[in-house]
Amino acid sequence: GRGGAPPEWRAMAVDEGVVDSRATYYDRLHAATKAATGSAVRERERADDQQLVHAVRAMDDCEQLANELAERVAAWAGSRFPSSSPGIAGARALADEERTDEAQTDEERTDELDRRVVSLATRVAELADERDALETTIERTAPAVAPNLAAMAGATLAARLIALAGGLESLAKKPAGTVQVLGAEDALFAHLAGRAPSPKHGVIYTHEFVRGTRPDDRGSAARALAGKLALAARVDHYAGTYRASLHDDLRERMATIRARADGNGETDGGDGTDGTDGTDGTDGTDGETRGGNDA
Element (H or E) spanning 25, and its range? Predict the structure, then answer.
């Protein structure tokens, strides 16, 4: 059936003397909803998983900037310091060499251009140090935010997966096939457009279980890892407790996949070389990845 008509709050507010007009009512309503929305956004941004997202993105920014500036330092310093070397290590060596020469002040150096090269090299070293400090923070924070995900993927990869998904809750709601190709969106869209083969993996390639598996079996390894990572994210979000059985099951599955190289492993439904179409992500042996929030 139908419910009753909602109360006419505007008229009631005016009649009871809460506000003197409808215009005032709407002004106060706008201010109240704006304040409530701002409070909700601030609370969400302060959430532990969002802080982890900010940290890993800041780490990537520092690394990218340090590498780009290191290239500039190498090109510039090569014309003024014959002993300079390329890369972040070369920039750091140049900055350290100048820093240890305490008897020489900025004014006493050859000229202003030399000072600028050394200053830029110092910035590269500082950015690299900040990147390392952020990684240390991530390694300390991730196990508290997502204990299973951090233990299974490593703190940095876990943080990267959470960042790519937009948060731990969003990651927990994604199917294993989507987790498998997170970070390979360009390749996936190219495949859907018919311009490229299906990607086998995204950022999870950096995990030893995928990278350390022979190429013929990486598709199966990526599917198995993605299935367990999806489960780990669900357990972390909905339960927040460490579950050892998840990690034991993954190790057993990876041992089976890697045993194929010696001819002793059992086969599964695939040939070990196919990727994923982004909709399933399972290989028939990780059926639990299809279940919902079993945490």
Answer: helix 22-45
DSSP assignment of 170-228: HHHTS-HHHHHTTT-HHHHHHHHTTSSPPPS-SGGGGSHHHHTS-GGGHHHHHHHHHHH
Do 142 and 56 touch, CB atoms closer than 8 A? no
Looking at residue 207, what is its pLDDT?
96
Report which of 226, 232, 233, 187 is spatially closest to residue 209, judged by C-alpha positions.
226
Could you identify the residue written with the tokens 């070990």? 272
Q: What is the token pair recorded at 247?
A: 């990690």
Q: Which of 232, 256, 255 is nearest to 242 (CA)?
A: 232
Block means of pLDDT (10 residues each) for the chain, 295 residues, are: 70 81 84 81 71 95 96 91 88 81 54 90 96 96 95 96 95 95 86 83 93 91 96 95 95 92 51 40 40 39
172 residue type, one letter: A
Q: What is the pTM of this model?
A: 0.71
Residue 148 CA to its chain's centroid (Å): 16
- The first and second tokens of residue 51, run together, are 């802080």
